[in-house]
């Protein structure tokens, strides 16, 4: 099967020009003006922007967490991602404390394999680093295509590791050419505030927010980058939500450290005023919580300053009956919100359309940087001869409204209900197949492939 996409405005990090793209099988085989080739199908992209398929480097599908499972599974989550232009997601395998990394990988594979509509890869979350776990790192990097190791500096008793484990993990990961990432918030400080607020009878979602002030994130971010500096391990802070954490990255960068930052679309667009809505605020209970306007200003600037490389979602949706688990106690509300479908359109509308970021930066933070940092470039993350034909045709002029009534995520509320956005994903191709056309998904659930990631020489 061959496809010719004609006359689109093709945007990559390095170029912006009207061109044709010729696709044979799963890959792009030619790009140029007025290509004279015979194709099985011709798509007219006149007036449309053409982006590389989005990569969301932070999602939790069907994730066991806080006594329940996030409610998008691999099929519904990757399908919703495709509707929004995200063709590849990176999900987190989470080690159970006391068990091996391999057993967690086997468990996650059993849920994901043959169930994904879009392409997917895994990070490995190390929640118990010891002499046995240490022996597994090399194989994961070299044989399983997992080059990034996530740590939690919070969620004590379930996911959190201590600084000793962190340093030992960093040494081992560095030795084998990988990267350590972190949910960098201070679990002990947070737990103390949670205990205090609960003991004083403050049980509403507002106190989730008040139990995680900026300093809990700033402190852990500084400690994390310091440990990475001491060990020389490449590092990446996930879901940076505040100025203090961004400044930890800034300081580390100034001393020429290999450190990278990720923020999420909700931290750029939503703020803590949403915690003033009684129990409805449970919709936005996530960790770290939404922050202040001044943090949004810092994060947008951080993107343009090259301190934030990726904009993810941390998609971790829970239905309302799951959120109700915490109706009498904020600490029991499952943490997370939906977003996998809206990242690309929201970032275009709020970022490019409102003049905060360039088209080149948009492509970089939604796709190219994640492909580079996580060992998928140039197969993914760009539009180039030899790359997978993962392509979005995007109409920058269509206005539409986000709502639970029209989204494709398997969750019964929208975190962005009523948001007006300008710019819409019109068509999506994944490895040379039309995935989304006329708002319909054309692929089925075994189409999505596991992407074996490589070590990234020169970056890691
Ligand atoms: O609230 C969140 N972020 N839930 C998902 C787990 C995590 O911390 O990333
Ligand atoms: Zn997290
Ligand atoms: Zn997460």
Offer a few descriptive terms.
alpha/beta; 31% helix; TIM Barrel; binds N-(aminocarbonyl)-beta-alanine; eight-stranded parallel β-sheet; nine-stranded mixed β-sheet; Urease, subunit C, domain 1; single chain; 460 residues; 19 strands; binds zinc ion; 2 domains
Overview of the structural elements:
This protein has 460 residues and is of the alpha/beta class. It folds into two domains: 2-51 and 383-399 and 421-441, Urease, subunit C, domain 1, CATH 2.30.40; 53-373, Metal-dependent hydrolases (TIM Barrel, Alpha-Beta Barrel). 31% of the residues lie in helices and 24% in strands. The strands form three sheets. Strands 1, 2, 3, 4, 5, 16, 17, 18 and 19 form a nine-stranded mixed sheet that branches. Helix 2 links the parallel strand 9 (86-94) and strand 10. The radius of gyration is 21 Å and the shape is globular. The two termini are 37 Å apart. 56% of the residues are buried. The structure holds N-(aminocarbonyl)-beta-alanine and zinc ion (2 copies). The site of one zinc ion has 4 residues, from loops. One zinc ion (ZN) is lined by residues 58, 60, 314, 316.
């Amino acid at each position: 099967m061959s496809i010719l996409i004609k006359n689109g405005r093709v945007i990559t990090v390095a170029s912006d020009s009207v061109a044709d793209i010729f696709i044979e099988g799963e890959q792009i085989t030619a790009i140029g003006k007025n290509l004279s080739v015979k194709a099985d199908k011709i798509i007219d992209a006149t007036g449309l922007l053409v982006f590389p398929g989005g990569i969301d480097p932070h999602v939790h599908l069907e994730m066991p967490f806080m006594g329940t499972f996030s409610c998008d599974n691999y099929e519904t989550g990757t399908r919703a991602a495709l509707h929004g232009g995200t063709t590849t997601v990176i999900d987190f395998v989470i080690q159970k404390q006391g068990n091996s990394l391999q057993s967690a990988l086997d468990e996650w594979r059993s849920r994901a394999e043959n169930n994904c509509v879009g392409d997917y890869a895994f990070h490995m979350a190390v929640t118990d680093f010891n002499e046995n776990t240490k022996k597994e790192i090399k194989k994961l990097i070299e044989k399983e295509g997992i080059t990034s190791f996530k740590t939690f500096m919070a969620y004590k008793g379930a996911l959190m590791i201590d600084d000793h484990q962190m340093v030992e993990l960093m040494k081992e990961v560095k030795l084998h050419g990988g990267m350590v990432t972190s949910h960098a918030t201070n679990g002990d400080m947070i737990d103390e505030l949670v205990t205090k607020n609960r003991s004083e009878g403050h049980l509403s979602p507002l106190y989730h927010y008040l139990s995680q002030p900026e300093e809990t994130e700033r402190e852990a971010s500084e400690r994390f980058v310091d440990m990475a500096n001491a060990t020389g391990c490449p590092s990446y802070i996930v879901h940076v939500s505040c100025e203090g954490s961004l400044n930890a990255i800034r300081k580390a960068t100034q001393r020429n450290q290999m450190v990278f930052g990720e923020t999420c679309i909700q931290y750029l667009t939503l703020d803590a005023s949403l915690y003033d809505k009684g129990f409805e605020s449970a919709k936005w209970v996530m960790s770290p919580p939404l922050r202040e306007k001044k943090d949004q200003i810092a994060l947008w600037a951080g993107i343009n300053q090259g301190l934030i490389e990726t904009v993810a979602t941390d998609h971790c949706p829970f239905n309302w009956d799951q959120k109700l688990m915490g109706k009498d106690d904020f600490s029991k509300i499952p943490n997370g919100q939906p977003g996998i479908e809206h990242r690309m359109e929201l970032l275009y509308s709020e970022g490019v359309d409102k003049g905060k970021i360039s088209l080149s930066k948009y492509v970089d933070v939604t796709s190219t940087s994640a492909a580079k940092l996580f060992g998928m470039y140039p197969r993914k993350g760009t539009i180039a001869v030899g790359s997978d034909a993962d392509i979005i045709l995007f109409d920058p002029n269509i206005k539409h409204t986000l709502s639970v009534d029209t989204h494709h995520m398997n969750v019964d509320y929208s975190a962005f209900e009523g948001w007006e956005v300008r710019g819409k994903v019109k068509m999506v191709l994944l490895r040379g197949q039309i995935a989304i056309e006329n708002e319909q998904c054309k692929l089925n659930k075994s189409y999505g492939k596991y992407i074996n990631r490589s070590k990234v020489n020169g970056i890691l």
